[in-house]
Design brief:
20 strands; Helix Hairpins; 7 helices; Elongation Factor Tu (Ef-tu), domain 3; alpha+beta; elongated
Amino acid sequence: MKKIIIPSLIIVIAVAILIIFKPFGKSQDAASEATKISIAVIKRGDLTITVNSTGVVEPILTVELKSKASGEIIELPIEEGDRVTKGQLIARLDATTARNDFDQAEADLKVAEKSLTQSSKEAERQKQLFDQTLISELDYENALLAKETANSNLVRAKTNLDNARDRLSQTIIKAPIDGIVLAKSVEKGQIIASGISAVSGGTTIAVLADMSRVYIRASVDEVDIGQIEVDQKDTVIAESYPDREFKGQVSRIHPQAKVQQNVTTFDVTTVVDNSEGLLKAGMNANVEIIAGHKENILLVPREALTDAKTMMRMAGGGASNSNRGSERSSSGGQPMSGGPGPQVMIVGGPPGVMPAANRQVETQKSSPTKMVITVKNGEQEPLQIEIGISNFEQAEVISGLSEGDTVLTTITSKALQDREKFMERMRSWNQLPGMERRGR
């Protein structure tokens, strides 16, 4: 029995030793790779800021054709997709009733003209007789009234003729614009209702659209809307023509936001030249708005940029740890001095990064300020720079760096990563029920 227990104890002790000492070996390996550093050289180049979104192609001008007259369609020489010119025949209605009304009104006008002529002559004769006191004043006034009545009938006849002529012309529907037939809603032989007399608003004959220019209404995230301005150039790529670029221009930025699934966006309307007629109404398209473009400027990688607060946190200090920072300064930390104003304390820092002295953080700038770590003569030190426009990869350098300068682009501290993970776990625990802080 003792022979069996002794080997078992030896195995348990060996496993315990492996468990105890294995983490130390990993820690030593991790310590050697605690920090990863890469560098980049400041160079000149071109920088373009773009904002991407999607939308649907829509015509700028759309006309819904209806007839003022009612009747049967006897001619309809169009089909969907046809190109039409202004004044071209779209549809013709049965004009029998309208023609009869026009002929009757024309005849009534001739009668009214003859009646007025006769009444005018009779009034002239009655005036001569009245001047000779051969008729009474009442007879003379009746003659004048008959003349004015005939004149009124003439005016009424002219009006009726104009109305009849208009109704006759309304039986012929012509294209009001140059464009394309997007939809045809009726067929030959169908009886349609008038667009001005019917309660329903009349029957739609066709829908025309001017497709020489189209617009695309794209939804832009609120994060990017501040970079968009009217008249900015953009590039449109339709899914139907993936290898073809169409040039456009921002014409309108809608002031009212839309919120869908907790995402806030703004509609941006882009006008695109479609003189070749390739873009069709309803096509899906990608819009790339050029929010900014500069040539031959100094460029710094975005991954090299940070701020003073982040740099102090990487160095082990911070605004809330000023007292602790003063205690640590005796062991290697050096305050950044140089006059009044807020100062940055670089305490310790990533391996290989030298503390900087006599550098003051300026709080007021015309452009955003960022911090970088420069490398010069084998030494590394923080530097505040002023930046301009930027995209996801690069930023414009306005001041602080020169062409050929070297900056650190990646400083990955394992200790910092572990600390951030620990703080994230603590924040998630505080959100769980029953884990709120006590003793307040």
